């Protein structure tokens, strides 16, 4: 196990490999920030929109039963 850790350290902390690895990691983080966040945002947006339609439909049903200023119960 020590040898595996030393091997990984040599690659990640190497003289010629550390900067490209860091730039790749920065690129991945930048992609997640700009493009990757659109997928969860789209899911949340559609979920809230569907929930709004559900509540609006319920509100219309309640309004239908209370048109005569009668309580809904």
- DSSP strand content: under 5%
Shape, per Cα inertia axes: rod-shaped
Q: Characterize the biggest β-sheet.
A: none
Helix percent reads: over 70%
| Helix vs. strand class | mainly alpha
Distance between the termini: 70 Å
Mean pLDDT figure: 83
What number of structural domains do the residues give? 2
Rounded to an integer, what's the Rg over CA atoms? 28 Å
Keywords: Membrane, Transmembrane, Transmembrane helix
Transmembrane segments: 12-34
Short summary:
The protein has 73 residues and is mostly helical. 79% of the residues lie in helices and 0% in strands. The mean pLDDT is 83.
Protein model, in words:
There is one protein chain. The protein has helices at 2-12, 18-36, 38-65. The chain is mostly helical and 73 residues long. The chain folds into two domains: 1-36; 38-67. The mean pLDDT is 83.
Keywords for this structure?
3 helices; 73 residues; 0% strand; 2 domains; mainly alpha
Fold topology:
Layout lengths: L1 H11 L5 H19 L1 H28 L8
């Amino acid at each position: 196990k020590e040898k595996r850790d030393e091997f990984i350290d040599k690659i990640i902390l190497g003289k010629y490999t550390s900067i490209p690895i860091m730039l790749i990691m920065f690129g991945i983080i930048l992609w997640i920030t700009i493009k990757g966040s659109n997928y969860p945002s789209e899911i949340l947006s559609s979920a809230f929109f569907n929930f709004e339609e559900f509540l609006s439909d319920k509100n219309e049903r309640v309004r239908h039963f209370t048109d005569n200023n009668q309580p809904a119960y």
